[in-house]
Design brief:
Bound molecules: adenosine-5'-triphosphate
Strand content: 25-35%
Protein name: ABC transporter ATP-binding protein
Helix content: 25-40%
Distance between the termini: 34 Å
Number of strands: 14
Order of helices and strands: EEEHEEHEHHHEHEHEEHEHEEEH
CATH superfamily of the largest domain: P-loop containing nucleotide triphosphate hydrolases
Mean pLDDT: 90
Keywords: ATP-binding, Nucleotide-binding, Transport
Family: Belongs to the ABC transporter superfamily.
Strand order of the largest sheet: 6-7-8-3-9-10
Oligomer: single chain
GO molecular function: ATP binding
InterPro entries: AAA+_ATPase, ABC_transporter-like_ATP-bd, ABC_transporter-like_CS, P-loop_NTPase
Low-confidence stretches: 293-298
Largest sheet: 6 strands, mixed
C-alpha cells in the first residue's frame, strides 16, 4: 500500500487557499501530519477519504488516481473524523454492530464476532452495554477508532484524535494506533499536539498555512534545530527582555531569577549553552524561523 499526493491545492469558494501545491509520499507505518490550527490538515484528510474534491492535483493510491477510483479506494479506508458523532440511543456494542452492517458485513454472527474483537482491541469490552453517549470523552474517541477499524482497512485516517483527552487517555489512544502500525497498514494521524508524533510516528510532515514545510522522520526533523536551542540563567529583569526576543520554551525559577530554555537562530549576545533539541523545540524552531523564511523567500 502506498499513497502519493501530487501537487494538491484546495481553494475554497471565498478564494481562501487552504492547501497550496502539497506533495507527499506515504508508505505503511504511522505517518504524522503536524500543524497548527487552520494549517489545512482536515482539508487534506477530507480529500484523502474522498469527502471533498481538490481544486487541483491528484492523489494516487497504489498508483490508482483517486479521482477515477473513488469507490475502490473507499473500500480500503477507515476514517475517524475530527467531529466524530454517533446516535445517542445506541449501546456501545449496538453502535459498532450498526456501523458493521453499514460497512457491508451482512451475517449477524460475523458482525457480532467482529464487534467483540473491536471492543477488546480498544479496551471497551467491559462497557459494551453502556449507552454510547454515556461514555467518557476518551472512551468515545476509542469507540471512534473502533468504528474506523471495521472491515480491516488498509489505510486508517485519524483527524486530531487526542484533542481534549487527559494524558492517560492520550497515551492509551496512541498505544492503540501504534499496535495497529505493526500490521502492513498506513495510518495517517493529523494533530497539532507534538507529543502525538514523537512517541509513535516513523514518518511525518509539517503543514503550515496549507504548505508542506518538512517531510521526513521525527529524528530528521529534530536534527534541523540542532545548534538552535539554548539554556541560560537570567535575572528577573532580564526575563522580560529574553522572552520578548526569543520563544522561551521553559522557565524554571531559581533564587536569582530563572533558568530558561529558548530557541533562536543565534543567541545574540546572551551567554548561553546549547541544549540537545527535542521534537517540541524543533517544532517551535520551524514555526518561528524556517516557515517564515520560506514564506519571505517566495
Ligand atoms: N468550506 C470552507 N470554506 C472556506 N474556508 C474553509 C472551509 N473549510 C476550511 N476553511 C479554512 O481553511 C483553513 C484550513 O482549515 P482546516 O480545517 O483544513 O485546518 P486544520 O489544520 O484541520 O485546523 P483545525 O484543527 O483548526 O480544524 C482554515 O483557515 C479554515 O478556516
Amino acid at each position: 500500500m502506498n499513497i502519493e499526493i501530487k501537487d494538491l491545492s484546495q481553494v475554497y469558494k471565498n478564494d481562501f487557499r487552504a492547501l497550496n501545491r502539497v506533495n507527499l509520499e506515504i508508505n505503511p507505518g504511522m505517518f504524522g501530519l503536524l500543524g497548527p490550527n487552520g494549517a489545512g490538515k482536515s482539508t487534506l484528510m477530507r480529500i484523502l477519504v474522498t469527502l471533498q474534491k481538490p481544486t487541483h492535483g491528484e492523489v494516487f493510491v497504489n498508483g490508482m488516481p483517486l479521482s477515477k477510483n473513488r469507490k475502490e479506494v473507499r473500500s480500503y479506508l477507515g476514517y475517524l473524523p475530527q467531529d466524530f458523532r454517533f446516535f445517542a440511543k445506541l449501546r456501545t456494542w449496538e453502535f459498532l454492530d450498526y456501523a458493521a452492517s453499514l460497512a457491508g458485513i451482512k451475517s449477524k454472527k460475523q458482525r457480532l464476532s467482529a464487534v467483540d474483537d473491536l471492543l477488546e482491541q480498544v479496551g471497551l469490552f467491559d462497557v459494551r452495554n453502556r449507552f454510547a453517549n454515556k461514555l467518557s470523552g476518551g472512551m468515545k474517541r476509542r469507540l471512534g477508532i473502533a468504528q474506523a477499524l471495521i472491515g480491516d482497512p488498509k489505510i486508517i485516517i485519524v483527524d486530531e484524535p487526542t484533542t481534549g483527552l487527559d494524558p492517560e487517555e492520550r497515551i492509551r489512544f496512541r498505544n492503540i494506533l501504534s499496535n495497529l502500525s505493526q500490521k502492513e497498514v498506513i495510518i495517517i494521524l493529523s494533530t497539532h499536539i507534538v507529543g502525538d508524533i514523537s512517541s509513535t510516528c516513523s514518518q511525518m510532515a509539517l503543514l503550515n498555512s496549507g504548505e508542506v514545510h518538512f517531510t521526513g522522520s521525527p529524528e530528521q526533523f529534530i536534527k534541523q534545530s540542532e545548534g538552535h536551542v539554548f539554556k541560560t540563567s537570567v535575572t528577573f529583569d532580564e526575563m522580560k527582555r529574553i522572552s520578548e526576543t526569543f520563544p522561551v520554551i521553559t522557565s524554571i525559577p531559581d533564587p536569582a531569577g530563572y533558568e530558561v530554555e529558548f530557541v533562536a537562530d543565534k543567541p545574540n549576545g546572551w551567554k548561553a549553552s546549547e541544549v540537545q533539541p527535542n521534537l517540541e523545540h524543533a517544532y517551535v524552531y520551524f514555526m518561528e524561523y524556517l516557515t517564515k523564511s520560506k514564506i519571505e523567500l517566495e
